[in-house]
Amino acid sequence: MCAKLLAIGALALCTSAGFANPVTLQNVDRSAYEMYTAHSQSVRGSGLSSLYSDLDPGAGGYVAFPDTAIEADGELESAGVADFATGSSDKIWLEQFVFIGGVNQAGGTVFFDFFDSAGTLIDGFGITLPDEGNFIWTIDLNAPFSILSEGLIRMSVDDENLSGSGSTAAGRWFLGNAGATIGDAGAAEASPDFNFNFALNSSVPAPGSVALLGLGGLVASRRRR
Prior knowledge:
By secondary structure, this protein is mainly beta. Helices cover 0% and strands 41% of the residues. The chain contains no helices and 15 strands. A hairpin with a 5-residue loop joins strand 8 and strand 9.
């Protein structure tokens, strides 16, 4: 895994979610998930295309829900659920994932679970973030996996070391109202009309997709805005 980190400016709080989804935190078996840390993989060459991208903030700037709770309830804490449609065929091969957000302590662990539109788990991965704070994270998957071209994604934060990584973090996942630049963000996840900021990248482009996500070299570094 290699992360490109960009500092995020001031936040406004986004209020209630307006997106109904069938995903629950219970009954997800993550025992087979690939777990990533800051320097676990050598840098892969460029050449990946975005099959879905919603990374722009929009006129209102980036916003976020309040940090996830820290409570001893034996569960990960959900930082949000988003729907997406790539415009590709039945499945896509996920090789790189980008999201905007972070955790409140270095070493905080988050999970990303991918579901079909009915809420059935497809696959996912976990990552221990090396820095506290809010950044644009670029995550190379050294064990790429296939997901459906349309579905749901959830970010969950480990607030009581359930993963055994030492994480007791809170976290957040940012939103913007610019809309997806590649693919379709579907229903707004928060009111008014905000969707979570993330991108799904692969070496196999979606039909008709010619735009590349300009991420530059993938190095473990941080650039301030």
